[in-house]
User: What shape does this take?
Amino acid sequence: MSPKENSDPFPIAGRTFSSRLLIGTGKFGSHALMAEALEESGTEIVTVALRRAEMGEVRPEENILSYLDPERYLLVPNTSGAANAEEAVRLARLGAAAGMPRWVKLEIHPESRYLLPDPVETLLAAEVLVREGFVVLAYINADPVLAKRLEEVGVGAVMPLGSPIGSMRGLETRAQLEIIVEQAEIPVIVDAGVGAPSHAAAAMEIGADGVLVNTAIAVAEDPCALARAFRMAVEAGRIAYRLGRSPRPAQAVPTSPLTAFL
Assistant: This one.
């Protein structure tokens, strides 16, 4: 890796990371397999659904937190399952009271068919949690107006979806994502619908600061191998974005001279 590539830190709310790939912890066949895939991904930020994390007395092999080293990963509690702002705020407070970091992936979806984030409740919850000192990573539809409103509230990052959760359909919202990236003065992390390494690379190429992947890796035939592929795709996409695209001429341009043949 060249010095230019290596000098590309990823800051969020005053904390700096090297990896721009975030990983969710749902749907893995086992906690042990999840831990192996996280290692291969090179991630430094892992999201954990608070409804899945065991806060009480359970056997270590049953507790997902036993497989996540807080010295190695920033564990970001996730309010997945919250149907409104009140539930999301309560979950975030419970995580903090249990000793988890005061970071939260704010996720509110009131219906179970499409799991689309509720913009009104998300904004309300973000206002409360930011006032209480949480670093909020706000999961949203690819809505440029909402993204700016959340930025004004003081969230640490916005996380617009590429397509619905778990759909693995890629960047169906690409046009809106490009507007969000253009306008944002905080990190933009594409979350949901990223089903292949090529999707992650495309998100990074349009200027996203990071990508969160869960389902595609967790349900893969070989989660560890795919985690490595996503790691490389995010790195490649970021390098491509920083270098910029070459000019696109209107007609063909030969790569070899068409004269002086033998």
